[in-house]
Write a structure and sequence with these properties.
mainly alpha
Length: 171
């Protein structure tokens, strides 16, 4: 697959839908028994087992649904969706770890490095997912860079939209 649209349908659309669902799960405190932090000292209280389980599982099903609706022929579609969901949540951890080491509280902004962390917040998962997709052999380097740019921009736009709808509390 060398054209862009199938890759956007595989990488971006399911993860956008999954993350909107995840924000609703958080907002309405569903799966509340899994709101235990993965490791509060390292990553803060907001990185929970609920997200680590929900995102990969939901993304596996979302990719399966998108694949069915768009008639994409993806071998092991649920495994790919789950792998991209895992890449998404894991790639957010280094940023959280660095912020905790610098004393920045979960959900708060850095007073001195605000722009840097905002950039990291909006690109870390896009990088992790795109890099994983590249390593799995679905795209070449050029397409990976294009997907990364589009995914990062989409992350910004969806975050603004969710804040506007009051589903998400901060940009």
């Amino acid at each position: 697959m060398t054209e862009l649209l199938p890759h956007l349908l595989i990488v971006m659309v399911p993860l956008v839908l999954t993350n909107v669902l995840h924000m609703l799960v958080v907002k309405y405190n569903l799966w509340s028994g899994l709101t235990l932090p993965i490791h509060e000292k390292s990553f803060g209280k907001n990185k929970t087992w609920r997200g680590f389980l929900f995102v990969p599982i939901a993304n596996a099903f979302m990719l399966g649904l998108v694949s069915l609706l768009a008639d994409l022929k993806i071998e092991y579609v649920f495994l790919l969706g789950g792998a991209l969901g895992i890449a998404y949540v894991v790639s957010e951890l280094p940023n959280s770890f660095i912020k905790r080491r610098l004393g920045i509280l979960p959900g708060m902004k850095s007073e001195t490095r605000g722009a840097l962390f905002m950039l990291m917040d909006k690109t870390d998962s896009a990088f992790g997912v795109t890099f994983t997709y590249f390593l799995l052999g679905y795209v070449d380097v050029r397409m990976a860079f294009l997907l990364f740019a589009i995914n990062s921009l989409t992350h910004v736009l969806v975050s603004l939209f969710l804040v506007t709808l009051k589903i998400k509390t901060s940009f």
